[in-house]
Amino acid sequence: MKNLMRWRSSGALVGLFLAACSGQGGGSTPPPATDSGTADTGTTGDGATGDRPAGDATGDRPTTDRPPPPPPPPPVDVCGMARDVSMSMPGMDGAIHVMGNNMDGPTMSFGALPDRCLSMGEKGRPVVFRYTMRANAALRVSTDNVGTDNMLDTIVAVLPTCSNMAAPLECNDDIARGNLQSTATTGGLMMGTTVFIVVGIWAQTAEDAEGGPFELTIRELPTVAVGMPCRAMDVCSAGSVCIPSATDPMVGTCVADGGLGGRCRSAMGMMPCDMGLSCSAAMPTAMAPGVCRMSLATDGVCDLARRTSVCMMGAQCLPTASDRATCRPASGMDMEPNNTPMMAQAPVTMSTVVSGSLMPGTDVDCYGISVPAMGSVYLAVDLPATPACPFVPGEAPDPIVTLYNPAGMQIAENDDAAGRGVCSLIDPATTAAARNLAAGNYVACVRGYAPAMGMPLPIMNYHLTLGILGPGMPMGDGGTPTDATPPTDATPPTDAGPRDGGTATDGGGAMDGGAAPTDTPAAG
Fold first, then answer.
1. Please, are residues 376 and 353 in contact by the beta-carbon 8 Å criterion?
2. What is the SS3 assignment for 245?
3. Would you list the DSSP string of 438-484?
């Protein structure tokens, strides 16, 4: 009876539903066909046997297939968009002038730029140019021109291949403090060599880079042959570098890689230096090639700046006459107690190397130096056990040297001299407080560096060079170049802008001490 009533009720409802859908009002509708021989259990939701269509998950609407999301846009081929400017004609200033706009570049980074060129950010909106060398020359590229929007923070790089992984031949971000434009100068390139010049915009991320108009200048610079005199702004031929003279840092000679005073060769399978020379770098690389030098025995005439020679282990280079320095072994020793300038050991009256050690904690060793009127003091700390003085936090010793005047006041101090690792140097050539001194007994003290959280490490053995330079005697040059520091181009000032650590470098100047080269603006 319940089934019969259910059938009638459902039939009536279906009739009303069909009538409403057909727009015929309340006319009679025949009952729906029944399932022959199958009892209706009143159960719904079975897609195979129930009242809903097969595959209907809800019972009241058919399923629909959603279209797949569109594929991501293909990456922009900046290399395929590279404009060849090789056939462009130079202007009256000898440079090719190319106008561009970084708004034409994609919001992406391109080119693996090292920290020496770019840090704490990225290079976005790259625009790439192709250029083929017309002669054996160096190549200088610059955005420091009147056609560049001075609000743009441009970056330039010269790549050997158009690849996002290519290490640049040279790159630059910001010529100097307050100048957001860039200039980069490569070493010597062979005629017919094709390079790719990238102009980008610095930003925190590539997507943040805002483009604008720029004027790029491309200039080929004649190179100086090996063995010929060179100046600060000159570029030596491929495979050589300008080594400044001992008396004038602005002039020098182009020296071939692997030669005495030249850069060590870093190519796989090649000897770093010529026969009889050794490299100051244990593992020379293109970025840190080191210097080829002679290793001298005791009494050998040496170079205080370590540019062309280094004394064998156990000896240090001492200024011993008005016109020379000599390799000498340590001839003095640390004698306790000498922990303060007032307790310094008896003053030496001639250049001497002393050997000492520092116990863990606050141990200090002080030595007296008798300086003649208008004399100078040269102090150098070396670690015989680790001549390169590597920086190994918490493991390697780190000495500091301090100079006091006869009144006991500190007048100079150094920790970690350029090119000497963690070893220290006070050179009157670069430290005015150590030269042209009044006559008297001065004091040099050695101590270990103390980290913020901890005590200084012990130094089991150090050598301290106590150099007394009388009026007119030779001086060092601040240790440039020295151990593990190849002779490189001048480094222009860093940008003190909103980013931290942005380092501006340029390969243009061929010598230490040369001014950072810049392109002549198009207007002049």
1. no
2. coil
3. PSEEEEEEEEE---TTS-PPPEEEEEEEEEEE-TT-----SSSS-TT
Residue 140 token pair:
């200088």
In this structure, the number of other CB atoms found within 10 A of the CB of residue 438 comes to 12
Structure tokens at 242: 């300008």
Helix, coil or strand: residue 262: coil
Name the nearest CA neighbour of 351 among 297, 428, 265.
428
236 contacts 265 by C-beta, under 8 angstroms: no
Task: Please tell me what DSSP assigns to residue 102.
Answer: G
The DSSP bridge pattern shows strands 251-256 and 324-329 to be unpaired
- In DSSP terms, 376 is beta-bridged to 469
What CA–CA distance (Å, rounded) separates 69 from 416?
58
350, 370 contact by CB (below 8 A): no
With contact defined as beta carbons under 8 Å apart, do 446 and 398 qualify? no
CA 163 to chain centre: 19
Residue 523 structure tokens: 């207007």
Number of H helices, E strands in the chain: 1, 29
What global pTM score does this model have?
0.52
- Rounded Cα distance, 347 and 406, in Å: 11
Residue 348 CA, chain-centre distance (Å), reads 43
User: Strand order in 399-404's β-sheet?
Assistant: 345-348, 364-371, 440-448, 399-404, 410-415
Element containing residue 385 per DSSP (H, E): none
Question: Digits of tens for pLDDT over the chain (524 positions)?
Answer: 334 343 344 444 334 333 444 444 444 444 544 444 444 444 444 444 444 444 444 445 555 567 777 665 555 677 888 899 999 999 999 999 999 998 877 776 666 666 567 666 667 788 999 999 999 899 999 999 999 988 888 999 999 998 878 888 888 888 877 788 999 999 888 899 999 999 988 877 767 777 889 999 999 999 899 999 998 778 888 888 888 876 677 888 999 999 998 999 988 888 999 998 989 887 888 777 888 999 888 888 888 877 788 888 778 888 876 567 889 888 888 898 999 999 999 999 999 999 999 988 889 999 999 999 999 999 999 888 887 788 877 677 889 999 999 999 999 999 988 778 889 999 888 899 999 999 999 999 999 988 767 778 888 889 999 999 877 655 554 433 333 333 333 333 333 344 433 433 443 333 433 333 334 333 33
- The three-state secondary structure class of 288 is coil
Residue among 231, 134, 266 nearest 189 (CA)? 134
CA distance 114 to 85: 26
Residue labelled with tokens 């101590």: 447
SS (H, E, C) 178-233: CECCCEEECCCECCCCEEEEEEEEEECCHHHCCCCEEEEEEEEEEEECCCCEEECC
